[in-house]
Amino acid sequence: MFSISSEAKVGLFVLVGLIVLGYMSFQVGQRGFTFKRGYMVEVEFDNAAGLSHDAAVQIAGVEVGRVEKIRLKNGKALVTLRLPAEVKLEKDVTAAIKTHGILGDKYIEILPGTQGGAYLQAGESISRVERQADVDRLLNQLASIADDVKMVSSSLSKVMGGKTGEDSIGAILENTRLLTKNLNAVVVNNEATLRAMLENTKQLTGNLNRVVVQNDDKINQVIESLRGASSQMEKTFTSLNDITDGIRRGEGTVGQLVKDKGMADRLNKTMASLQEVSDKINKGQGTLGKLVNDDETVNNLNQTLGGINKFVNKSDQFRTFISYRGEYLTEKSDAKSYLDLRIQPRQDYFYLLGLVTDPRGRRTVKDITPEGGTTTQITEWDKSGLLFNAQIGKRYQDFVIRGGVFESTGGAGLDFMSFKDRLKLTFEAFDFAADRNAHLKAGGELRLLKNIYLNAGWDDFINKSNQSPYVGVSLRFEDDDLKYLLTSVPIPTK
């Protein structure tokens, strides 16, 4: 019988171990020491110089991923990032290439986006990118600026140096002295005109100050009313500014305008007109004067604004709800459906209109009298007809009382709201008849999502022939939801 010696067995075992060790070393060198888990997203940079494969991806200084690969796409660097499944990125995050210190390794920094927004899925791209500073371009621009500064300093040295430069500076100083002397002469020659202008301005300021002090409680209304007067004053001061600039420059035409008595007269008339307007306002003349001085006018305006404010507040409180509720009756193996319209003028008051389809139908009682016999009553169920609801409700803290028509019969209901209206317990009683027990219904409603509710309870639980437990789901939409849905529906075009 063929046998293998112990030395051969040891040699064969060592050979197999070396083969396995070599294969594992090759795999580790190619794929690294970590398993490629998580999901990948892409980001496109104009320049990814210095960024290497397997570089870190950080958020707020914490490493959350690695660079999977870098490739060229349409002349730009397309970088693929691998992130763990527990790290979620908002769709409006910003990616930027950063450097650890001045000469450190480069990494990718993720700046978080809007909290609570939609998240990026695997394979999607980050659209917002922070541009990376190009150090080479910055150094080139600084070198160009240094050359320009050197040229300017060289030119100034040529102009200011030597005898010619000294003569130029002396001429500039002499011209400045002559300009100052001319300006002084202009001011002295027009001293009376300037004094009259300043006196009119002083009187106008005093009148305006009295108006403000006497009507301090109405200052906001006065400011709005004086905008027209302020516009005219702005034009006047603009003219004064132009005259002052002309005096500083010493231009002949502007200097002549300063000496022109007609210009000063027109300016005085303007100041006098403003003073007259101010006096009329202070005396209560005109619409603006009544607004400032007449309390009745102000009260009427406040009452009007108050009425408008109440109307706007009421319109904000008005809300409309449309809901559908389906209930599966376990004893009948059939479904019962409700379609309701709830109109809520106030937070604690509402109207409810709705249609109901009941597989048991609508119960009617008829009197039958055969010839020569006695009258008897029979109960019939019309399964083809629709039932309707028409109710009015009032809320008192956590309790809601309802009354009106319940499934085409009179009745009343009581609701208890809890957990910030996420859970509703309800009890209804209707269809009060002498030949049978009233229709009693009890159940609960739990909000799972914004527009989705889960229902369960017991319908008509005191009538053995018609009782049935039920479970169901409700869909409820508010007017804001309907506006969003309607505006989101595409309009067909030819």
Q: Would you give an account of this structure?
A:
- The protein contains eleven helices and 20 strands.
- Helix 6 (227-249) runs antiparallel to helix 8.
- It starts with 5 loop residues before the first helix and ends in a 6-residue tail after the last helix.
- Residues 29-35 have low confidence and may be disordered.
- It has 494 residues and is an alpha+beta fold.
Quick one: overall form?
Answer: flat
Classify the helix fraction into a percent range.
40-55%
Major beta sheet summary: 10 strands, antiparallel, barrel
Q: Strand order within the widest sheet?
A: 9-10-11-14-15-16-17-18-19-20
- Determine Rg (CA atoms, Å): 45 Å
Keywords for this structure?
alpha+beta, Elongation Factor Tu (Ef-tu), domain 3, Porin, 10-stranded antiparallel barrel, 11 helices, flat
In short:
With 494 residues, the protein is α+β, with helices and mostly antiparallel strands. The protein has helices spanning 6-31, 135-160, 162-189, 191-214, 219-225, 227-249, 252-259, 261-283, 286-293, 295-317, 479-488; strands at residues 39-45, 56-59, 62-73, 76-83, 94-99, 106-111, 125-126, 128-130, 319-329, 334-346, 349-357, 362-368, 376-382, 387-396, 399-406, 409-418, 423-430, 439-447, 452-459, 468-478.
Question: What is the topological layout?
Answer:
Blueprint: H1 6-31, E1 39-45, E2 56-59, E3 62-73, E4 76-83, E5 94-99, E6 106-111, E7 125-126, E8 128-130, H2 135-160, H3 162-189, H4 191-214, H5 219-225, H6 227-249, H7 252-259, H8 261-283, H9 286-293, H10 295-317, E9 319-329, E10 334-346, E11 349-357, E12 362-368, E13 376-382, E14 387-396, E15 399-406, E16 409-418, E17 423-430, E18 439-447, E19 452-459, E20 468-478, H11 479-488
Parallel strand pairs: 1-7, 2-6, 5-8
Antiparallel strand pairs: 1-4, 2-3, 3-4, 5-6, 9-10, 9-20, 10-11, 11-14, 12-13, 14-15, 15-16, 16-17, 17-18, 18-19, 19-20
